[in-house]
TrEMBL record:
Family: Belongs to the protein disulfide isomerase family.
InterPro entries linked: PDI (IPR051063), Thioredoxin-like_sf (IPR036249), Thioredoxin_CS (IPR017937), Thioredoxin_domain (IPR013766)
Signal peptide: 1-19
Name this polypeptide is given: Thioredoxin-like protein
Record domain Thioredoxin: where: 14-145
Signal keyword on record: yes
Molecular function (Gene Ontology), one example: protein disulfide isomerase activity
One of the record's GO cellular component terms: endoplasmic reticulum
PANTHER family attached to this UniProt entry: PROTEIN DISULFIDE-ISOMERASE C17H9.14C-RELATED, THIOREDOXIN DOMAIN-CONTAINING PROTEIN 5
Keywords (A to Z) from UniProt: Signal
GO biological process: protein folding
Domain of life: Eukaryota
Length: 187
């Protein structure tokens, strides 16, 4: 009798386990180089995106072994430093040079992976350090701090600049002669 009850209980548990819906598949995980949320720039978005703020852009080929080796490092740095977009107006993105060949040619990209730093639309530096998580992170954090300081130093200068003549407040109108005479008589 106990054996029958045990078998019946095991069968019930097994049927419940098989009837339970499977968990939804995970689209991506931390460090997944196929993360659809990784920002990619195109010929149409490159100039408008880079026109404001500081951007570190990776130019890569999906067929390049060095790029494939660097991809998880790049994504880890990007994910860990995402807060810099709001804190420092520092952004990171990628350009697939196979899909965006004209853009990479216009940017004179000669090898992959190439990391270039842009400030307000102008290329200011080519990264030449080691392509390790620690080295790239140190570069990103330092350049974000530099850009934050630059913007802070420009803000007071913009506030202290004299307003254009058209924006100056109008002078108070001169008192009318009758009002001036009345004011003089009251004294």
């Amino acid at each position: 009798m106990r054996l029958n009850a045990l078998l019946l209980g095991a069968t019930a548990l097994l049927s419940l386990a098989l009837a339970a819906p499977a968990p939804a598949p995970i689209d991506y995980a931390f460090g997944d180089i196929h993360n659809p949320n990784l920002p990619h720039l195109t010929s149409a978005t490159f100039t408008p995106s880079l026109s404001h703020g500081m951007w570190l852009v990776e130019f890569f080929s999906p067929y390049c072994p060095h790029c494939q080796q660097f991809a998880p490092i790049w994504q880890d740095v990007l994910e860990m430093q995402e807060h810099l977009a709001t804190d420092s107006d520092f952004h990171m993105s990628r350009v697939n040079c196979i899909e965006q060949g004209d853009l990479c040619e216009a940017q004179k990209v000669l090898g992959y992976p190439a990391l270039r730093l842009y400030a307000d639309g102008q290329m200011v530096e080519q990264y030449s350090g080691k392509r390790t998580y620690d080295d790239v992170t140190a570069f990103v954090v330092a350049r974000a701090a530099d850009y934050r300081k630059l913007r802070a130093s420009q803000a007071p200068a913009a506030a202290a600049a004299p307003a254009p003549a058209a924006a100056a407040p109008a002078a108070a109108p001169a008192p009318a002669p009758a009002a001036a005479a009345a004011a003089g008589a009251a004294q």
